[in-house]
Design goal:
With 270 residues, the protein is mainly alpha-helical. 86% of the residues lie in helices and 0% in strands.
């Protein structure tokens, strides 16, 4: 009797695991197909000849990039300045000034900057992106576009993804430049270390590899996170009450995917 009950419970657990694996596999395949359609439209470069698509692209870049500059300045003053000064203070404490450049390259440029800008864009633009695309699907605008012969991927998804990726990379470089400039002024004013010595230590450890890793992380983080946001927004078809749920899942899913990807990149580059 006990053995039969144990077998029944194991059968139920196996069924649940099977359903979970099927759900995860189907979701991954659906998401991959969604990204594949956007990439297919993007690499054809026909969207560059569409004035309406370029208009959406410019509008999204203004919202995601230009309107974020004041926040990036705040992050540069608070997070960037404090982080770089902490690295300098740590190197001075252990009396190893050449370590400043390595810490700045490995911790600030490669690790912290792409993660910080990604979290910032998710917090500022992620919910707005899902809400905008979700309302378009609730109003059946995607069906109207198809009836007019306009590609949904080309008009709704691609310009928002291009703007998100471009602004992420630009804001990364703006954040690094502002943080470095403000840190140089602060260190020079504070008097613990000369500005020329500080810049020389940074220049000694700077490399093209660090720049390429930063650009790779910026592209992957922004591409996948924006893809998750657009995917959840595109699944809004009938019930408007589910929009907050999709927005929450989209932002959290993007954040978890970004962290997992960062861990994988760190393991590969170890």
């Amino acid at each position: 009797m006990l053995r039969q009950a144990w077998l029944v419970r194991m059968h139920r657990q196996a069924t649940r695991c099977g359903y979970l694996m099927l759900w995860a596999t189907s979701g991954l395949l659906s998401f991959s197909a969604f990204l594949g359609r956007i990439l297919k439209v993007g690499i054809q470069f026909q969207w560059l000849k569409r004035p309406t698509v370029i208009h959406v692209l410019i509008r999204q870049m203004y919202f995601t990039g230009i309107q974020s500059l004041s926040w990036i300045l705040f992050l540069s003053v608070s997070v960037g300045l404090l982080s770089i000064y902490s690295l300098v203070a740590f190197a001075q404490t252990i009396e190893n000034l050449p370590l400043i450049g390595k810490l700045f390259r490995d911790i600030f440029v490669i690790e912290m900057t792409p993660i910080l800008i990604s979290v910032f864009l998710l917090a500022r633009s992620g919910v707005a992106l899902i809400t905008e695309v979700g309302h378009m699907h609730l109003r059946r605008e995607h069906l109207l576009l198809r009836s007019l012969g306009i590609g949904v991927e080309e008009y709704l998804y691609l310009p928002r993804m291009v703007a998100f990726i471009s602004c992420h990379l630009i804001l990364c470089f703006v954040f690094i430049t502002l943080s470095l400039w403000l840190s140089t002024l602060f260190i020079s004013w504070h008097g613990d270390m000369s500005a020329f010595r500080f810049l020389a230590e940074l220049r000694q450890e700077s490399s093209l590899e660090a720049l390429l890793i930063l650009m790779l992380k910026s592209f992957l983080f922004s591409f996948l996170s924006c893809g998750v946001l657009l995917y959840h927004g595109s699944r809004m078809l009938n019930n408007p009450n589910l929009l907050p749920i999709h927005a929450t899942y989209g932002v959290l899913g993007s954040l978890m995917l970004m962290i997992a990807l960062d861990v994988m990149i760190g393991v590969l580059l170890w």
